[in-house]
């Protein structure tokens, strides 16, 4: 059973990453519809603003509680996030809460001088409940949208695979919060490959989305994205095999880590290129920063898995 301190810390760290991801999913969906589907637009906008409120409450109690590793990982905010939000707000006319990002970017990590951490327990418990309720609603929204798109009742510029992709991420967020709410300890050995299966698939799909959203003239970038897609497809298969056979495979984790480092560099250069108007595409800048943060999050998880694997090997 999780201690109060771990419960608070792990909950807030999870929300700092996933709440921003969820609000951006809502934004990407919102700007992808035609005027005909104003109901879908309004619902996505409402979800986006509710996740803004949730993120604001998370940020307000995270100072001195979360780990420096999470802050330094770049999974919550990167050096591009504010500029990407400003550019995306300019392109779409949607009022993105840039000030929220500015506050979050100044968060400080765990402090030994922070007293009374246990007093945050009820606040965090309530935030977890709100996150579960809000995410459950978003899951239902995405599920209905995917069904309507696949049955040709709704048109959107977002790929059906992208909708399925962000639906899976919402389901993972919900499950992880629920487990924290139940004070469940995570067995890293048991779950490392489950996470690697999940995130290797996510990285593969990112590559394929980027490939499909680049201008057809961007041959080099298209080829690079395509190669990453194939590489992470293979890593996902390897992780599935390791999980199914309950085998220890530190080489797989090392391979996933190296591949994710490489795609992080690709995404970093891509986000910078989008912001500097040096890449021809139909990729909105915030999407570039979004997928970069997910790579950063996965890298932090892989560092934990690698460390645990090395300890067991020793």
The fourth-level CATH homologous superfamily of the largest domain is Protein of unknown function DUF2935
**Named CATH topology of the largest domain:** Ferritin
Using DSSP, what is the number of strands?
Answer: 0
Helix/strand-derived category reads mainly alpha
Distance between the termini: 27 Å
Report the biggest beta sheet as strand number plus sense, adding barrel if it closes. Answer: none
In DSSP terms (H or I, runs of 4 or more residues), the helix count works out at 11
Order of helices and strands: HHHHHHHHHHH
Q: What shape does the CA trace take?
A: globular
Radius of gyration: 19 Å
Are there runs of 5+ residues with pLDDT below 50, and where? none
> What is the averaged pLDDT score?
94
CATH class of the largest domain: Mainly Alpha
The fraction of residues assigned to DSSP E strands is under 5%
User: What count of structural domains?
Assistant: 2
CATH architecture verdict of the largest domain: Up-down Bundle
- Percent range of helical residues: over 70%
């Amino acid at each position: 059973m999780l201690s109060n301190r771990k419960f608070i810390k792990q909950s807030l760290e999870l929300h700092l990453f996933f709440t921003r991801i969820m609000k951006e999913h809502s934004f990407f969906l919102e700007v992808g519809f035609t005027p005909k589907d104003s109901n879908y637009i309004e619902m996505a906008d409402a979800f986006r603003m509710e996740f803004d409120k949730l993120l604001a409450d998370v940020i307000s109690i995270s100072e001195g509680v979360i780990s420096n590793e999470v802050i330094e990982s770049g999974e919550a905010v990167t050096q591009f996030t504010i500029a990407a939000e400003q550019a995306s707000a300019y392109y779409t006319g949607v009022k993105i809460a840039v000030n929220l990002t500015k506050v979050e970017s100044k968060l400080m990590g765990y402090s030994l001088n922070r007293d009374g951490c246990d007093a945050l327990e009820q606040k965090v418990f309530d935030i977890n409940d709100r996150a579960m309720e809000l995410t459950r609603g978003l899951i239902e929204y995405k599920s209905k949208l995917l069904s309507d798109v696949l049955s040709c009742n709704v048109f959107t510029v977002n790929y059906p695979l992208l909708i399925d992709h962000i639906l899976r991420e919402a389901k993972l967020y919900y499950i992880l919060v629920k487990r924290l709410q139940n004070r469940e300890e995570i067995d890293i050995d048991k779950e490392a490959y489950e996470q690697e299966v999940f995130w290797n698939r996510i990285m593969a799909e990112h590559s394929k989305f980027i490939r499909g959203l680049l201008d057809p003239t961007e041959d080099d970038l298209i080829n690079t994205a395509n190669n990453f897609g194939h590489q992470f497809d293979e890593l996902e298969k390897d992780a599935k095999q390791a999980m199914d056979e309950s085998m220890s495979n530190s080489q797989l984790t090392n391979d996933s880590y190296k591949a994710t480092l490489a795609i992080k560099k690709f995404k970093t250069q891509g986000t910078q290129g989008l912001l500097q108007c040096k890449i021809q595409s139909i990729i909105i800048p915030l999407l570039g920063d979004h997928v970069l943060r997910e790579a950063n999050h996965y890298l932090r998880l892989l560092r934990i898995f690698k460390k645990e694997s090395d300890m067991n090997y020793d």
